[in-house]
TrEMBL record:
Pfam family, one: Methyltransf_25
The keyword Coiled coil is assigned to this record: yes
UniProt keyword list: Coiled coil, Methyltransferase, Transferase
CDD domains according to UniProt: AdoMet_MTases
Name recorded for this polypeptide: Class I SAM-dependent methyltransferase
Gene3D superfamilies per UniProt: Vaccinia Virus protein VP39
Residue ranges that the Swiss-Prot or TrEMBL entry lists as coiled coil: 23-50
Entry-linked SUPFAM superfamilies: S-adenosyl-L-methionine-dependent methyltransferases (SSF53335)
GO terms, molecular function: methyltransferase activity
Keyword Ubl conjugation (UniProt): no
Upper lineage: Bacteria, Pseudomonadati, Pseudomonadota, Betaproteobacteria, Burkholderiales
GO biological process: methylation
Domain Methyltransferase: 46-134
Source species: Undibacterium rivi
């Protein structure tokens, strides 16, 4: 289950979340990733987890055969559903990424998660991959995008715990601060974690973001 701290933090940030995509120094990298994800999702029946405000859903949906975008927060889905989609093939639903219903045969051919992996503790990552395989179906394409730590652009890391998870202090809408998990894995760490659960791992990085694609076992 997604931790209450993380769920509540993003529920409060629903109306301002997309400000993170406005940084001038990240625009070229964002456009690069948008095109890569649209190409990967082309003609796929996609289940998206932790879709948030639908920022990425709107970018890749035109190339997908269908999209079922999910999030644990209704506040996020309310915003996501106001976006512009070119067909009626995009649908939304409440779902916790750790409690996805088992996919029916052929129901999905791909799973997408944007900026989720960094918020999952290291000790929960293997379980998450199993849940994604269950929710998307074995043999489905899995595509993840997330942040690279860039000094001067990223929020500073506040601490590291005994398991190696790193944390940042984030500002809430009410002015209070909350500590959230934000991990920045290396390619070797990603490959080591994913290898038992997937095949055909491919990793791409630009300055601000990394993209991983693979096939769920």
């Amino acid at each position: 289950m997604i931790e209450n701290t993380m769920r509540d933090y993003y529920a409060q940030r629903a109306n301002s979340l997309e400000q993170i995509y406005q940084y001038p120094e990240r625009q070229q990298d964002l456009q690069d990733m948008q095109q890569r994800i649209a190409d990967l999702m082309k003609n796929h029946k996609v289940i998206e987890v932790a879709c948030g405000t639908g920022y990425w859903t709107e970018k890749y949906a035109p190339s997908a055969e269908s999209v079922y975008a999910t999030d644990v927060n209704q506040a996020m889905l309310d915003i996501a559903q106001t976006k512009s989609y070119q067909s009626d093939r995009v649908h939304f639903g409440i779902a916790d990424v750790f409690d996805l219903p088992e996919a029916k045969a052929g129901e999905y051919t791909a799973c997408f998660a944007g900026f989720l992996w960094s918020h999952i503790k290291r000790e929960q990552q293997t379980d998450l991959l199993a849940k994604l395989s269950r929710g998307a179906g074995k043999g489905s394409l899995l595509v993840l995008i997330d942040n690279i730590y860039v000094e001067g652009s990223s929020t500073p890391i506040a601490r590291t715990d005994a398991e190696g998870n790193t944390y940042q202090l984030r500002m809430q809408e009410d002015g209070s601060r909350v500590e959230i998990v934000k991990n920045f894995p290396t390619d070797s760490a990603l490959r080591k974690k994913f290898a038992p659960a997937v095949r055909d791992i491919r990793i791409y990085r630009n300055e601000h973001y990394w993209l991983l694609s693979c096939i769920l076992k």
